[in-house]
Input
Amino acid sequence: MGRPPTNLHADVAEVLLDEERIRAKVLELGERISADYAGRELTLVSVLKGSLPFMADLMRAIHLPLTIDLMEVSSYGGAATETSGLVRIIKDLSASIDGRDALLVEDIIDTGLTLNYLLRYLRGKNPASLRICTLLDKPARRLVEIPVDYVGFTIPDQFVVGYGLDYGEHYRNLRYVGVLRPEVYST
Ligand code: IMP
Output
């Protein structure tokens, strides 16, 4: 865990997505998902901790009966702003998704390594279907091909924080998504 920042906003070089844009996009995704899953047995599976605000807002934008479940994973090794692809499950699903329509709710897809692992893991649980909804997509750094069904925003290759996303466990509570000043992680 990093040293606590003294001023969250001062460490952000640029606001990429403000609160209003995020809110509008979440409502739009909620409408699409509600239409696509009408009459089905939807379970939203979110991956802690980064997806927490997105999951909380998205589930309330979907007007269908649904259940939720939470997983937590961590990736081994790598620099603080990189993922290694070696994933450890810290918290597993608490209920079976066998025969259910599972929608994996993610904060960001970067290299795709974490999600690739999770997809393989969840497919093994025999859901009736398995799709992905991510708030942010950074396709520039993708190392594995991932079929993403719902994307909020496609963003450039910059390290972002806020609305759940962290650097050293901080900045998750920012209401917007912003680009972290490179000085913050290079020092
Ligand atoms: P991937 O395995 O490289 O796709 O990385 C996915 C995970 O890395 C995300 O769930 C985030 O936790 C983290 N991550 C990737 N890019 C960023 C970023 O720009 N800001 C904060 N976390 C990120």
